[in-house]
Structure to design on (350 residues):
């Protein structure tokens, strides 16, 4: 039974999807394995909508588990971050799943751009993941499954992306580019609705915090770090069990006006979101930040210096995760930090 929690629902599960298109009755619908890791973790509603619109079915991978990470060790380079290792384990699991016809892992280049900011790129590991993870599909447990890896760049037109997707899906079915383009537009609409749902959850959580007269914890970091229980070691739930409202970063609005000066040149999508969230946390009474990062995360090695400067004197906790961690030591650090939060909150109120 899941422990009690005040944490908002994971963003990869939030958001309605479009109705499924009428399938071709002459042949079964292709089943697409989607690894719930890296960008695909929070893009699940997006890709579910897209594939339903073109008459295919998404089969998500199981949650990250010790078995998944053990598989990952056999395929991922040792020097990469934990989420990158995890995606190799997810691909290996899907390749062994008899329900799956092919694994879908796109080269994600960039999120939709924000005016005035130089770029919106995903981490280079996110972009390169398919090239490494394809080896995990040949894990010796059964017939090798194709890994479909189109280039997806949300700064470019729906038509441009639709053509790449239609071409990548050709081993399974021939789909008209116009159908693919409409499906891609529907997927973007689903993602926008998902975002609105998350923002409303955040507004509700902040309202509850104000009414309770207690501090709340903002969970900062990439969703595939913070909300994947196998990677985060259930640490957000431990914070909630200690009596705190937990607000995931995606439940706060992205406010690019906080990115001033040299931060306007922050070209990583998640870097922009993280710094915006930290600025809001620093300026909002009753909100305190816990930043979950991964050992070996290159972008975060730059972001942490900015994050600490923005947070200033307000208590702020950074926890670095890797596959060797156990939650005991993390629990001790979290509990000590929460004691500091209580003291700081009372001092500021007084």
């Amino acid at each position: 039974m899941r422990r009690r929690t005040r944490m908002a629902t994971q963003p990869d599960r939030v958001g309605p999807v479009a109705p499924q298109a009428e399938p071709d009755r002459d042949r079964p619908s292709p089943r697409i394995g989607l690894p719930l890791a890296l960008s695909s973790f929070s893009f699940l509603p997006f890709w579910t909508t897209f594939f339903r619109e073109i008459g295919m079915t998404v089969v998500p991978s199981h949650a990250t588990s010790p078995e998944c990470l053990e598989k990952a060790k056999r395929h991922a380079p040792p020097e990469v971050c934990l989420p990158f290792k995890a995606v190799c384990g997810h691909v290996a699991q899907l390749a062994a799943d008899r329900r799956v016809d092919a694994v879908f892992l796109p080269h994600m280049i960039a999120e939709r751009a924000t005016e005035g900011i130089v770029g919106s790129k995903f981490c280079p590991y996110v972009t390169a993941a398919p090239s490494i993870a394809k080896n995990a599909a040949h894990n010796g447990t059964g017939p090798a499954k194709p890994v479909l890896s189109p280039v997806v760049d949300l700064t470019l037109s729906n038509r441009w992306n639709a053509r790449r997707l239609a071409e990548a899906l050709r081993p399974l079915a021939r789909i008209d580019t116009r159908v693919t383009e409409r499906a891609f537009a529907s997927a973007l609409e689903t993602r926008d609705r998902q975002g609105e749902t998350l923002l409303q959850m955040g507004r509700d959580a902040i309202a509850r915090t104000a009414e309770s007269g207690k501090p709340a914890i903002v969970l900062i970091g990439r969703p595939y770090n913070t909300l994947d229980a196998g990677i985060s070691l259930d640490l957000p739930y431990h914070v909630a069990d200690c009596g705190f409202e937990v607000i995931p970063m995606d439940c706060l609005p992205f406010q690019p006006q906080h990115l001033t000066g040299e931060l306007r040149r922050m070209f990583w999508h998640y870097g922009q979101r993280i710094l915006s969230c930290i600025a809001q946390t620093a300026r909002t009474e009753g909100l305190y930040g816990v930043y979950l990062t991964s050992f070996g995360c290159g972008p975060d090695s730059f972001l942490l210096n900015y994050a600490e400067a923005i947070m200033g004197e307000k208590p702020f906790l950074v926890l670095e995760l890797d596959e060797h961690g156990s939650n005991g030591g993390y629990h001790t650090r979290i509990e000590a930090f929460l004691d500091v939060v209580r003291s700081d909150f009372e001092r500021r109120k007084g």
About this structure: The beta strands are 31-34, 57-60, 102-104, 107-110, 147-148, 151-153, 216-220, 245-248, 287-294, 316-321. The CA atoms of residues 222 and 270 lie 7 Å apart.
